[in-house]
Amino acid sequence: MNKSYLETHPDENGYFGKFGGSFIPPMLERPFADIKNAYEELKNSPAFIEELKYVRKHYQGRPTPISFAKNLTQYCDGAKIYLKREDLNHTGAHKLNHCMAEVILAKYLGKTKVIAETGAGQHGVALATAAAYFGLECEIHMGEVDIVKEHPNVVRMKILGAKVIPATHGLKTLKEAVDSAFESYISQANEAIYCIGSVVGPHPFPMMVRDFQSVIGFESKEQFFEHEINLPDNVVACVGGGSNAMGIFSAFIEDNSVNLYGVEPLGRGEKIGDNAASLTFGTEGVMHGFNSIMLKDENGEPAPVYSIGSGIDYPSVGPEQAYLKEIGRTKIGLCTDEEAVDAFYKLSQLEGIIPALESAHAVAFAMKLAKTLSKDKTILINLSGRGDKDIDFVVDKYPIPNAKF
Known about the structure:
The chain is α/β, with parallel strands linked by helices.
């Protein structure tokens, strides 16, 4: 019997084609091997599977629904637009899907603490939530710029009992938060586990986070038939590291009739430092322990990046995202800050759903795509998070528009 794509990717060394692998200091080789071995044991354990099912149903509120965006569809006057409502997942984003599982893994390994980075704060909030639920300490590293920008999520993390440590070097955003978290983890590897927040980092994290997030795609595949008699024609998700995108793409990779669109932040434009569109403008390189596509400066080092969405403000991308683009399975779209803010307000005022700025990138691209397609076509957006965290920042920088469209 032929094995599925998910069973054969990555290979045993953590590679998706030439992307992936594990490029880490010798002192971390043993802890990461322990994580890999524990995951291989747990993922086939009936007790682990049942615990995760229980948590997802009775604590997270899964399955999350699919909503038909009737008013947005009418506004675009093209393809029918549907939303996979990860904004209704507990804590307001998709991140809890892997955080609960990672903390179970930490307990299995006998760890007493979890460490992570966060950009928009959603991963930090989710991990702090999971740590509180399972009784572990939690340490979150976050860029100083994002701490100011995403203040509500910082407060939530602290209320949940997490220690929030500012990253004060470089651009003081997501890359620097990862740097800071890795440095802290090296000295605490015996008692802590680093819970990477996306499908990035050394093997096994790109595989492990994808597998935990694949619940989004498999739910969607089943639920979509409640609305339409076919699979969606197009699936759209924003891409920074790529966890929400891999979550929904995973169930459709072998369905060649379904177009998969990863939407990157074009930010202010195409110049280095004005965007975080790694797959569009980047080249192959190693960063944070894995080989993928990354944005580089003139010296070949990670370039400064920018996006209005703090959670997708990263100079590289998950290795599986790079691989799927290279083999032609995914298509890459772009979205500027202005388009994202416009979609933020459109979805809010037309559907009563305030999206995260990261998710608004996917909404903006889907709106453009819908206008090019006939009305019998369908688009499924992974609405990866809600926008509570962004409202103060958005209304301060971009006045609330009149709702007459």
